């Protein structure tokens, strides 16, 4: 058995060792290919770059939303400023109440000291040491009066304490409300900034050629808006003419027929001054408004700004009319309610023109279909056609 074992040929393992690394590499490679294939299959496809038309629509929409958010911010800021003044008044009342409490406390201290001094000597001893019985009874009556006044002082002190506690509670509530308003104001500010940042990001990705195409689209949009506005103005003019004709026919039916060869007493309508404020007084105010607005041309649009170095749209209109002695509310939503509404065809220099269905923009009409306004972020105060944006309506503030 041992002799046979010594002649047995040993089995080589060289082949197995040589093939092992190759097998491991092939397995890893296959796993990598499989993983890459799986990732490629599940990965989201790259979004195509938006067209110039899509960018224009998105940017316009973002600016519109930012404009609306700006008016919301302006309104919230106005309310917060009012609340802050109210809190200041309440804190003043708290301070005054504290002073009254301290004064009442001092009065109590005076009476308490007097009572202590009087109580140190008993009634018998006081009578014995008195100069005369009359002086003793006078002192007794004085102490009785002091007791009555002390009671009044206690009641006053308690009253002032209750008032002070009420004022402190009111101040605490007012401060909580103010804090909530300030938090809301901060959130509104962030909302505007986010929308403006998104618009800037879209515009920054455009090439020079795409920006040129965008400018052409903006011009086309302005021309289309002008066409629609002119058609609307023509329609309004026709309706107004028809209404005047109906009124004239109605007056003719009501007048009795002429009985002689006189010249008649017809009154006509030639002395009407139109829809309010169209006399020289309004023209003088409007000139001041436009002079102020012209001086602001070139200054940047900054949302929430009211001057003097920058403006948003309603900040400019309010500042311009303030220069003419007319105080306008802060937001477009409130400014549109001031004065008298006028048709686009009847616009006069100085009138305010409002835009979009949500009344998120406003400009000052200067004549010849143009206005001065603070357009949008990234732009300066400038003259521009009122037909650049869809017109909501117009008002004559004074």
Based on the model shown, name its key terms.
9 helices, disordered N terminus, alpha+beta, single chain, six-stranded antiparallel β-sheet, 398 residues
Secondary structure elements and pairings:
Layout: H1 2-6, H2 14-42, H3 52-119, H4 123-129, H5 133-204, H6 208-254, H7 280-295, H8 313-322, H9 332-335, E1 340-342, E2 352-355, E3 361-367, E4 370-373, E5 382-385, E6 391-396
Antiparallel strand pairs: 1-6, 2-3, 2-6, 3-4, 4-5
Helix pairs in contact: 3-5, 3-6, 7-8
Protein architecture, described:
The protein has 398 residues and is an alpha+beta fold. It is built from nine helices and six strands; from the N terminus they run H-H-H-H-H-H-H-H-H-E-E-E-E-E-E. It has helices at residues 2-6, 14-42, 52-119, 123-129, 133-204, 208-254, 280-295, 313-322, 332-335; strands at 340-342, 352-355, 361-367, 370-373, 382-385, 391-396. Strands 1-6-2-3-4-5 form a six-stranded antiparallel β-sheet. It is elongated and about 105 Å long. The model is unreliable at 1-41 and 260-277 (pLDDT under 50).
Q: Outline of this structure?
A:
The chain has 398 residues and is α+β, with helices and mostly antiparallel strands.
Structural class: alpha+beta
Described by strand count, sense and barrel closure, the largest sheet is:
6 strands, antiparallel
N-to-C series of helices and strands? HHHHHHHHHEEEEEE
How many distinct beta strands? 6
Strand order of the largest sheet: 1-6-2-3-4-5
**Number of helix segments?**
9
User: Regions with pLDDT < 50 over 5+ consecutive residues?
Assistant: 1-41, 260-277
Describe the global form: elongated
Provide the residue-averaged pLDDT. 74
Question: What percentage of residues falls in helices of 4 or more residues?
Answer: 55-70%
> Which percent band covers the strand fraction?
5-15%
End-to-end separation in angstroms reads: 129 Å
Rg over C-alpha atoms, rounded to the nearest angstrom: 43 Å
């Amino acid at each position: 058995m041992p002799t046979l074992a010594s002649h047995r040929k040993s089995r080589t393992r060289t082949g197995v060792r040589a093939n092992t690394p190759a097998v491991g590499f092939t397995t890893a490679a296959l796993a990598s290919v499989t993983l890459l294939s799986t990732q490629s299959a599940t990965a989201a496809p790259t979004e195509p770059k938006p067209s110039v038309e899509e960018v224009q629509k998105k940017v316009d929409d973002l600016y519109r939303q930012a404009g609306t958010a700006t008016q919301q911010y302006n309104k919230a800021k106005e309310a917060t400023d009012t609340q802050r003044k109210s809190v200041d008044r309440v804190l003043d009342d708290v301070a005054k109440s504290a002073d009254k409490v301290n004064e009442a406390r001092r009065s109590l201290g005076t009476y308490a000291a007097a009572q202590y001094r009087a109580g140190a000597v008993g009634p018998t001893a006081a009578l014995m040491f008195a100069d005369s019985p009359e002086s003793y009874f006078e002192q007794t009556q004085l102490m009785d009066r002091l007791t009555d006044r002390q009671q009044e002082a206690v009641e006053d002190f308690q009253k002032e304490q209750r008032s002070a506690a009420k004022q402190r509670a009111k101040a605490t509530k007012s401060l909580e409300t103010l804090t909530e308003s300030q938090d809301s104001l901060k959130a509104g500010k962030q909302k505007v900034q986010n929308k403006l940042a998104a618009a800037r990001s879209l515009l920054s990705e455009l090439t020079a050629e795409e920006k040129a195409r965008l400018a052409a689209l903006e011009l086309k949009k302005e021309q289309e808006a002008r066409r629609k506005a002119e058609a609307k103005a023509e329609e309004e003019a026709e309706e107004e003419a028809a209404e005047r004709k109906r009124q004239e026919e109605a007056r003719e039916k009501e007048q009795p027929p002429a009985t002689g060869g006189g010249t008649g007493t017809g009154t006509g309508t030639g002395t009407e001054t139109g829809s309010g404020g169209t006399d020289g007084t309004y023209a003088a105010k409007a000139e001041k408004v436009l002079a102020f607005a012209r001086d602001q041309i070139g200054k940047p649009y900054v949302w929430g700004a009211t001057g003097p170095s920058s403006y948003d749209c309603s900040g400019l209109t309010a500042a311009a009319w303030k220069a003419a002695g007319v105080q306008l509310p802060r937001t477009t939503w409130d400014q549109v309610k001031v004065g008298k509404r006028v048709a686009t065809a009847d616009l006069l220099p100085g009138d305010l023109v409002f835009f979009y269905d949500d009344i998120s923009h406003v400009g000052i009409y200067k004549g010849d279909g143009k206005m001065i306004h603070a357009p949008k972020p990234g732009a300066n105060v400038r003259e521009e056609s009122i037909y650049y944006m869809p017109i909501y309506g117009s008002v004559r503030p004074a």
